[in-house]
Design brief:
It is built from 7 helices and 4 strands, in the order ααααααββαββ. It is an alpha+beta fold. It is globular, with a radius of gyration of 19 Å.
Length: about 200
């Protein structure tokens, strides 16, 4: 089963009945109205986030901090230290993430992690990932609001992830509030036939 099929099963639905506290239902009703969706749609969004992100983040002891707090911390750390931290943590983090999630250590999983897990609007939100394809090149433009130090950290972190998952590299451009990666898509390895 491919990663895409494993991570995004939308074809089958089931009906499940369960009890929740009245106060929680009030919150769901209020939030659904605020978002302009039904409670069913809201619950599916919540369950999707739990299934594809939160349960892994909880097991990994991930922390949530306000962007302002992270911005203030980053201001105090020398850029060269952020670069080294990104290089060191990227490779080990990605191995832990893909192993915990049961993903293959391959390019498709890298694309998923960049565009959804770390860079999508619903999960970790380290950055906002714009993913484009031009011929056999994938372009990942990662925008954020945390300044140049975060860009430097991300460049090294993502390169370490890519190198740990594939045999390819990327051209990068670092900006104050974004990083762009140009990756030549690796070829699929030929499947060896048994002898």
């Amino acid at each position: 089963m491919s990663n895409k099929n494993r991570l995004d099963r939308r074809k089958k639905t089931i009906t499940r009945t369960f009890r929740i506290r009245k106060g929680w239902d009030d919150v769901l009703q209020e939030e659904a109205a605020r978002q302009g969706v039904s409670v069913n749609v809201l619950l599916n969004k919540i369950l999707r986030k739990y299934s594809l992100y939160s349960r892994w983040a909880d097991r990994n002891n991930d922390m949530s901090l306000p962007q302002q707090t992270i911005r203030e911390i980053l201001k105090t750390v020398p850029v060269e230290n952020l670069a080294e931290a990104g290089r060191r943590s990227g490779a080990s983090d990605v191995i832990n993430i893909v192993n915990a999630m049961g993903l293959a250590l391959d390019y498709d999983s890298f694309v998923y992690l960049m565009s959804e897990h770390l860079g999508g609007p619903h999960f970790a939100r380290w950055f906002h990932c714009f993913h484009h394809t031009q011929g056999n090149t994938d372009i990942f433009h990662l925008q954020h609001d945390l300044g140049r130090g975060w860009s430097v950290y991300l460049e090294r972190y993502v390169l370490a992830c890519l190198r740990a998952m594939t045999d390819t590299d990327a051209k990068t451009r670092v900006y104050d509030y974004a990083v762009t990666f140009e990756v030549t898509r690796p070829r699929s390895k030929p499947i060896e036939k048994p002898r």
